[in-house]
């Protein structure tokens, strides 16, 4: 079964450093997403991406965040200057098209720890 | 987004059926009912979705009330691997782009021997 692959599985970074979280969505999918989950809290939407541009973003997705699909396969989330409160699991997801029968496919996540 | 209400937790014995309820009294005509689950230390996983009719797939069944104000996810024979948080989510399929999922707190299902 096709998978969404995320790397690394765990990243530890110092406060103020830049991090890039990587995702390889399923190859024929068209819509891409980042979600995050702070330990013990809900899964929260960050951003959606379609046709090489952001479709929607949440209040969490401020100027410190950016997304890119540089080469047609990878989908990255960059946090420019990490804060302690950015520590969370970050999940990438993709879907083929609106109403796609199998729903979204999520990756296993990257655990980001900011120290 | 229309809101859903689920019990915080439920317990089941292994090999027995589990009925996970969800209330969504403010559902609109274009909202599909989606169920996802999240196993420990994993990303959310699609389970099933439907609009009006009951749906079956290899993972579960979805029973939708005639007025669509509630639905029930049915796991026919719970196993220890089904222990997870189950999310009932409404998603408007009429939006121009594939809209986001809005997760609530879900139902934590415990399965015991």
List keywords for this structure.
heterodimer; A: 115 residues; mainly beta; seven-stranded mixed β-sheet; four-stranded antiparallel β-sheet; 50% strand; B: 113 residues; five-stranded mixed β-sheet; 0% helix; globular
What's the short story on this structure?
The complex is a heterodimer of chains A (115) and B (113). Chain A has 115 residues and is mainly beta.
Summarize the SSE layout with pairings:
The complex is a heterodimer of chains A (115) and B (113).
Chain A: E1 5-7, E2 10-13, E3 19-24, E4 31-37, E5 43-50, E6 53-57, E7 65-68, E8 75-79, E9 88-95, E10 105-106, E11 110-114
Chain B: E1 9-13, E2 18-23, E3 31-38, E4 45-50, E5 55-56, E6 61-64, E7 70-75, E8 84-92, E9 107-112
Parallel strand pairs in B: 1-9
Antiparallel strand pairs in B: 2-7, 3-4, 3-8, 5-6, 6-7, 8-9
Outline type of chain B: globular
H/E series of chain A, N to C? EEEEEEEEEEE
Main pleated sheet of chain B = 5 strands, mixed
Give the strand order, joined by hyphens, for the main sheet of chain B: 1-9-8-3-4
Strand proportion of chain A, as a percent range, falls in over 45%
- Helix amount of chain A: under 10%
Strand content bin of chain B: over 45%
Rg of chain B, rounded, reads: 14 Å
Task: Bin the helical content of chain B.
Answer: under 10%
Oligomer state equals: heterodimer
- Counting DSSP E segments of at least 2 residues, the number of strands of chain A comes to 11
What structural class do you assign from the helix and strand content of chain A?
mainly beta
Rounded to an integer in angstroms, the radius of gyration calculated over CA atoms of chain A is 13 Å
**CA-to-CA gap between the ends of chain A?**
36 Å
Poorly predicted parts of chain B = none
Which chains share the greatest interface? A-B, 29 and 22 residues
Q: What can be said about the biggest beta sheet of chain A?
A: 7 strands, mixed
Give start-end ranges of low-pLDDT stretches of chain A. none
- How many beta-strand elements of chain B? 9
Content-based structural category of chain B: mainly beta
């Amino acid at each position: 079964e096709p998978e969404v692959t995320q790397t690394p599985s765990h990243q530890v970074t110092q406060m103020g450093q830049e991090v890039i979280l990587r995702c390889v969505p399923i190859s024929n999918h068209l819509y891409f997403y980042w979600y995050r989950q702070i330990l013990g809290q809900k899964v929260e939407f960050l951003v959606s991406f379609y046709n090489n541009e952001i479709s929607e973003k949440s209040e969490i997705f401020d100027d410190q965040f950016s997304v890119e699909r540089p080469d047609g396969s990878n989908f990255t989330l960059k946090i420019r200057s990490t804060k302690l409160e950015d520590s969370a699991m970050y999940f990438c997801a993709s879907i083929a098209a609106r109403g796609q029968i199998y729903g979204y496919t999520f990756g296993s996540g990257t655990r980001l720890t900011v120290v | 987004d229309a809101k859903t209400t689920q019990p915080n937790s439920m317990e089941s014995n292994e090999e027995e059926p589990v009925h996970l309820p969800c209330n969504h009294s403010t559902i609109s005509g274009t909202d599909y009912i989606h169920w996802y689950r999240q196993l420990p230390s994993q990303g959310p996983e699609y389970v099933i979705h439907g609009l009006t009719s009951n749906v079956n797939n290899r993972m579960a069944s979805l029973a939708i009330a005639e007025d669509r104000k509630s639905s029930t996810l049915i796991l026919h024979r719970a196993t220890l691997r089904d222990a997870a948080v189950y999310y009932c989510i409404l998603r408007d399929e009429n939006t121009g782009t594939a809209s986001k999922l809005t997760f609530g707190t879900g139902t934590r299902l415990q399965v015991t021997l």
